[in-house]
Amino acid sequence: MCPPIKHGPLHINPYTTYRRHAFFGEVRERLMQVLRETCLMRDWVVLGMEVMPDHVHLFLSVPPKWAPSDVAKILKGVSARRILQEFPKLRRGRGGGHLWTPSFYVGSAGNISAQAIQRYIESQRKYQDDDA
Q1: pLDDT tens digits along 41-91
Q2: Interior angle at CA 107, CA 104 and CA 110, nearest 5
Q3: How far apart are CA 20 and CA 29, in angstroms?
């Protein structure tokens, strides 16, 4: 019998199309709420989150039954649908009606400590001065 497959906490990092700066003010707050709700509905625990103007850092504890790529796809799909419905102005411009790029980064906290990832995510907002 094979041992069960386990993965540690996940660091998920999706980017907006063309790295456009879309997440400010009300949009930023609503995106954070949508991501938290999506995680709560699936019993995923948000260990850390930071929304930057053109990307998001998520640090999640997810049961091993979920493939990391599926977690990223669900979060991107649900958030894109809700945000674009509520903020139709984001459909205009270079994104062509898309919020996220097709690609994303997903990493497990296996190689580095969970505390190091949390510190990294928490420190990201300090370096942004263009939040409107």
Answers
A1: 999 999 999 999 999 999 999 999 999 999 999 999 999 999 999 999 998
A2: 175
A3: 17
What three-state secondary structure class fits 48? strand
Selection from 26, 49, 35 nearest residue 132 by Cα:
26
| Contact in structure between 79 and 99 (CB atoms under 8 Å) | yes
Q: What is the phi/psi pair of residue 37, to 5°? A: -60, -45
Among residues 15, 18, 105, 120, the one annotated as catalytic is 120
**Residue 125: C-alpha distances to residues 2, 64, 68, 106 (Å):** 42, 30, 25, 20
Residue 125 tokens, joined: 């907002």
pTM score = 0.81
The answer for residues whose C-beta is within 8 angstroms of residue 5's C-beta and 6 or more apart is 64
Give me the residue label for tokens 């850092």. 57
Active site residue 15: no
The strand ranges marked E within 3-130 are 10-16, 45-51, 56-61, 100-108
Contact at 8 Å (CB) between 108 and 72?
Answer: no
